[in-house]
Amino acid sequence: MTRRVSPAGLVRPEDLREHGExxxxxxxxxxxxxxxxxxxxxxxxxxxxxLNGYHSGELVLGSGTWVGQHCxxxxxxxxxxxxDVGVGPGCRLITSTHADPGPSAPIMSGALVFxxxxxxxxxxxxxxxxxxxxxxxxxxxxxxxxxVVTHDLPDLCVAVGSPARVVRRRQ
Length: 171
Known about the structure:
8-stranded mixed beta sheet; 34% strand; globular
């Protein structure tokens, strides 16, 4: 397995699986395994953001998607963001965890468990939101700053807190 990394965020479009027009990758952003990353038109990747396409996954950002500074998007099990999605600064979108190996072993020795994450068109994640493996966030969802999303969220809702809970429907 060859590990491909974009040095200092300098990714050539031909390194990516797919890329659209008018893509902006700010200085300091890093793309790991760019061959597994697809970016639509008008995608913005903020300073020091990390896109980890992983060797076995696929990371897709739809057209018009904006990823803020200092984000980590982990695509080991597959990470798909729809079109016009906002990902606020400091967000973490994770697609794997360690299984519990039992009380006599270090947690890090547990097997990796993978589960994809999907975020629907037009959704927005506030600053420092964490989305855990296996979660699907519907279309047009607003997730409040600092929320930890542990379960699926339906279309057109507003969710806040840790764990995130729906507080109202968007009209």
